[in-house]
Amino acid sequence: KGTPVSFKTGDSLAIWPRNPAKLAEEFCTMMGFDAGQQLQVVPLEGARNWCPQELSVRQLFTHVLDVFGKPNKKFFDTL
Question: How many angstroms separate the CA atoms of 19 and 15, rounded?
Answer without folding.
Answer: 13
